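Possible regression after last week's pipeline update?

I re-ran a chain I had predicted before the update to compare outputs. Posting the input and the new output here so someone can diff against the archived version. Not blocking, just want to make sure nothing changed silently.
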Amino acid sequence: MRNTHTRFTFASAAAGLAAILAAFAFLVWSRVDAQPAPSAKDAVAAGTAAGDRTAATVNGTPVSLASVQQAQIMSEVMGGPARDALSKPGAALDNAIRSELLFQEAARRGLVPADAVVREEVLRQQASLQKLLASPAADPRLKQVQRDLAGTGFSVDEYASSPKVFAAFQRAMAIAALTKAITADLPPAARTEAAVAARVNALYHYLRAKADIRVLISP
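New output (post-update):
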């Protein structure tokens, strides 16, 4: 990713399968435990089983159960920071609610990028990931994930034509723009990942305290 703002925001905005793939596609993943990991196929199956059910509403906007369950499973598939971020009970739902609140605030401030800008970024990320996958040094687990996602709309080869991927990138880019806006006053020396995270967390808690959030499933 291009900078600290973008890296942090893609991770924090991983409310669904596509967002998680976008967030962690270029990380080196390692699993040190001996427990068998689920597969991307399991995530797709969970999304299908969830159907159009709603996990929660945030100011009247539904958060799909499919996106929450897919995020949880894909965090296990990918391991590393993805798994750590969503390992606690209810973390995937909390993360989805957080993403929706921040996206709504970005929209309120007029920070959602235009379609043409999003498409340019989707194509750039697609080309980068395709290049990585073609490299002999590509992590075989990443290749397996891509094979499992073929035909689902989340495979890298489908990025350019997938509304799901477009929506995930648009959301992540909007939250990245929001993050940049609320940390613009930080001097370069103080603009650490921890400082950025603190600003975003403070805004999130402020928004959550005012929001109408209705959880419809058991976390």
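Follow-up from reviewer: compared with the archived run. Residues 4-215 form one domain. Marking as no regression found.
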